[in-house]
Amino acid sequence: MNSSIFLRETRKLGVTDRQIKNWIAQGYLLPSKAAPGKGNKRDWPIDELRIVHAIVIMMKVGFTLTAAQEYARKMIQTNNGFLDLGDKCSLMMELP
User: Fold this and answer.
1) Which sequence spans correspond to the domains of the chain?
2) Total-model pTM
3) 66-94: per-residue pLDDT in tens?
4) What's the DSSP call for residue 85?
5) Are 55 and 14 spatial neighbours (Cβ–Cβ below 8 Å)?
6) Cα–chain-centroid distance for residue 59?
């Protein structure tokens, strides 16, 4: 997915371009092609948009960014929207 489509879709979720840049710098988001320098476009795997969507939902209910990103990646890897958090606690989410 090209960068302009990715950013348009993340804006619909309420995530700013600055947040995306910060999340990339912190390693929370992983573009498939990280373009060096300023103003260069990135390519994005579709799963990264799903991860942003899951992060937004989890942060709205009180997860930290770090925890939300970690759990979002695990949910995407299992591809079923369900994650066992341990200690008789689980997380289920409908993912796009």
Assistant:
1) 3-92
2) 0.83
3) 999 999 998 888 877 778 888 888 888 87
4) E
5) no
6) 11
